[in-house]
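re: the backbone from monday

yeah here it is again, tokenized this time
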């Protein structure tokens, strides 16, 4: 019988490369594809002798290791053995089964560097960097979702919406790209982007993306992964992590080889205008221990909202341009320095909301709305270790400028515009030291310093109709309204430790002490009012202590049961109300949670279906949150959004997610979340019929399917489809913001056919061309406020990707 062989990769680099440790980053998937990736990265030859082995799913293989170790891990994941056939070549073959009928020793053939048959080993751990001490997924007593970066680029590099559509417990407002607020697990405060800090912490590595500014909606290109931790994370992340954190983990520069990758695509939007996108990533080693990695992204999203009063169609085109450059220097095998610069600009030509009713996708506003958002980040990361200890220090600065334009028409001024600018600056450092588990004990200590400034300015602009030969409205009046500046300085000490109190039981305790000095003042306030309210500009100090406790049982290498208690907080600040500026106080959450996990799955995170190799996975959690002195936005007497403490709240939240391999190459996943919230009755709600926390649906769920098959030698077909439902919710707090929204279905599919180097993609978004209503706010100054934010109509994208 002829031996079946499938040659998966050939030598690409010089022989010495395979003998030395290098960075390996092979995404999970079929063993054949993973072997190709490993061979190219390590300059080796890997042959899998059995086709059935090549078709099996294996987890991702990442880290710094020699080629031999990478091959060993691949073989272990397959339950096979790796046989060295040369200095830089291996053969992976099935491990021989013992013959119970034979008791005589069998002479093994002599081969170079013989390897004994290896038994199947536990899958290599998925290290969750958001744990801040490199804990594996199986060691974390919380709900964790991980999305592989390659999956996020399948249909072209998108933004934060790629996360919200894959994880049911993550939701968002929909004012527009770069202007939205994110929420996790029902912890939502309001619809506007004012002086309050977000309830979700967003991080680029270890650096926070913003302090009290909206989601910058960065393009999710060239990422290793996205990690989402649900529930308060106050001990490790401090202020602004009431609902959880979202951590973007970029790919690091590689020292071993130069590479270039890119993709380009064009899109058509039904009932709208066309668009396109382009992404390029280059990796360039400059010396033996220095490398650079850069990415450029640009996208133009076609508009689909018409404004007949202004004589324009498809007005809401959005243009996005961004890029980043990272340089990495490896000072020694354990010490490195990494410098990153990142910038992105968003030009939203007009607003994406419409009037409720017919005709659809139409707004009666006569002025040009929209927004301009500029975001920039710079960071320096020093990593290393001392013996068993690991060290990491991150220093960075962040700048975010946001200008929003809203229709403010009245009967006497139909061409009036409201303009709000928010300029945010932040400088931060975080330094931590941690130890892995030794003798059943592990620990982490850290410190951080943060300085944040935000300045909000407002004005009304009235236009006059254009002359017959003019193309634009002319501004004839500007009325400046009061603004506000908030300054926050924070100093923090925190720590966490885990102790194995029984063979399968681990107890974890932590604490964080934050000293915050708050300051700021009013801008453009009349002198008499400023004197009367001068006390609000006086600095004040807050000290917050956030404890945490957790207990988890490792029932098996894949099963975990846990319970935990965690707190979170946000500092107070200053807010504008009509012609005045006043204080609002800090708010605080306390959450109890119980949950369990089996296998490697996390709230519908699609990447885990490939990375785990588990035929079945399940995760479930139940939590209760007490929220004191909730900071939220409302519409004041002048029709403008303001911020206040609206009372206390109670939130029950439950989530369920799972995945199953139902056929060769076909995996199904599903996730759902349920929330029940109630706000105590403050004066603000006396006229309101709702006490539900805004923007959070009682139920949301999604289902997804992934299929992969080899259609020809080396040519693979991959399809990723999904459908999600978001239940009804309320826009905000009080009678003025009680509009219903949500209760819609969205869906999409992305298909790729190609090999490791080149492929073609085709995608459809909003398969059923649903209208829906994502968000019932387009402008807070509309006299009737009868607005909807529809889904983007059915869109088609065709793209090509290429790697060199």
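seq for it, each position gets an aa:
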């Amino acid at each position: 019988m002829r031996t079946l062989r499938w040659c998966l990769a050939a030598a690409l680099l010089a022989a010495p490369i395979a003998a030395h440790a290098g960075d390996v980053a092979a995404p999970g998937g079929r063993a054949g594809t993973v072997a190709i990736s490993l061979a190219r990265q390590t300059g080796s030859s890997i042959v899998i002798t059995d086709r059935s082995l090549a078709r099996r799913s294996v987890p991702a293989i990442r880290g710094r290791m020699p080629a031999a170790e990478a091959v060993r891990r691949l073989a272990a994941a397959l339950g096979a053995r790796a046989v060295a056939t040369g200095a830089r070549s291996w053969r992976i073959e099935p491990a021989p089964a013992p013959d119970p009928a034979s008791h005589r020793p069998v002479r093994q053939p002599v081969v170079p560097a013989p390897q004994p048959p290896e038994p199947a080993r536990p899958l290599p751990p998925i290290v969750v960097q958001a744990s801040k001490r490199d804990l594996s997924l199986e060691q974390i007593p919380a709900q964790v979702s991980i999305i592989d970066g390659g999956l996020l680029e399948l249909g072209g590099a998108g933004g934060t919406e790629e996360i919200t559509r894959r994880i049911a417990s993550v939701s968002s407002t929909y004012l527009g790209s770069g202007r939205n607020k994110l929420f996790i697990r029902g912890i939502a405060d309001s619809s506007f982007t004012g002086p309050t800090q977000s309830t979700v912490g967003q991080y680029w590595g270890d650096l926070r993306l913003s302090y009290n500014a909206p989601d910058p909606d960065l393009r999710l290109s060239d990422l290793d992964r996205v990690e989402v931790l649900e529930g308060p994370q106050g001990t490790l992340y401090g202020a602004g992590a009431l609902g959880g954190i979202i951590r973007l983990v970029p790919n690091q520069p590689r020292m071993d080889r130069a590479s270039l990758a890119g993709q380009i695509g064009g899109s058509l939007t039904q009932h709208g205008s066309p668009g396109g996108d382009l992404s390029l990533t280059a990796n360039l080693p400059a010396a033996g221990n220095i490398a650079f990695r850069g990415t450029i992204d640009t996208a133009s999203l076609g508009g689909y909202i018409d404004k007949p009063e202004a004589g324009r169609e498809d007005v809401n085109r959005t243009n996005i341009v961004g890029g980043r450059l990272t340089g990495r220097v490896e000072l020694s095998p354990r010490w490195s320095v990494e410098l990153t610069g990142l910038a992105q600009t968003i030009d939203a030509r007009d607003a994406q909301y419409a009037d409720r009713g017919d005709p659809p996708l139409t707004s009666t506003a006569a002025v040009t709305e929209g927004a301009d958002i500029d975001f920039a980040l710079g960071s320096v990361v020093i990593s290393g270790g001392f013996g068993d200890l690991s060290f990491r220090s991150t220093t960075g600065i962040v700048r975010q400028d946001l200008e929003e334009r809203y229709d403010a028409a009245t009967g006497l001024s139909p061409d009036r515009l409201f303009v709000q600018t928010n300029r945010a600056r932040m400088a931060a450092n975080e330094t931590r030291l941690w130890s892995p588990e030794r003798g059943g004990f592990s620990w982490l200590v850290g410190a951080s310093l943060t300085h944040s400034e935000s300045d909000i300015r407002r004005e009304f602009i009235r236009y006059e109709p254009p002359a017959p030969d003019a193309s634009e409205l002319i501004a004839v009046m500007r009325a400046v309204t009061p603004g506000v500046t908030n300054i926050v300085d924070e100093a923090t000490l925190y720590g966490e430790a885990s102790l194995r109190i029984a063979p399968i039981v681990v107890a974890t305790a932590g604490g964080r002490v934050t000293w915050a000095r708050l300051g700021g003042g009013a801008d453009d306030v009349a002198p008499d009012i400023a004197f009367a309210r001068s006390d609000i500009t006086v600095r004040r100090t807050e000290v917050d202590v956030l404890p945490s406790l957790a207990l988890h049982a490792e029932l098996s290498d894949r099963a975990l049961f846990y319970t935990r208690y965690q707190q979170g907080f946000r500092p107070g600040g200053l807010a504008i109300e009509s012609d005045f500026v006043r204080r609002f106080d800090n708010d605080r959450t306390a959450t109890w949670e119980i949950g369990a996990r089996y296998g490697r799955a996390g709230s519908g995170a699609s990447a885990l279906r490939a990375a785990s190799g588990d035929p079945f996975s399940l995760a479930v959690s139940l939590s209760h949150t007490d929220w004191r002195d909730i900071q939220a936005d409302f519409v004041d007497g002048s029709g403008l959004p303001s911020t206040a403490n609206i009372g206390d709240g109670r939130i029950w939240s439950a989530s369920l997610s799972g995945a199953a391999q139902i056929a060769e190459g076909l995996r199904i996943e599903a996730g759902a979340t349920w929330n029940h919230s109630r706000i105590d009755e403050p004066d603000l709600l006396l006229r309101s019929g709702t006490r539900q926390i805004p923007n959070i649906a009682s139920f949301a769920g999604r289902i997804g399917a992934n299929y992969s098959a080899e259609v020809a030698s080396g040519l693979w077909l991959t399809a990723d489809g999904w459908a999600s439902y978001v239940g009804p919710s309320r826009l905000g707090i009080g009678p003025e913001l009680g509009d219903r929204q949500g209760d819609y279905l969205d869906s999409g599919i992305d298909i790729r056919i190609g090999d490791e180097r080149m492929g073609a993609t085709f995608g459809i978004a909003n398969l059923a061309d649903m209208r829906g209503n994502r968000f019932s706010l387009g402008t807070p100054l509309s006299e009737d406020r009868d607005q909807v934010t529809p889904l983007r109509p059915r869109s088609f994208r065709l793209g090509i990707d290429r790697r060199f």
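DSSP finds nine helices and 47 strands in the chain. The chain has three domains: 6-94, 127-245, 246-803.
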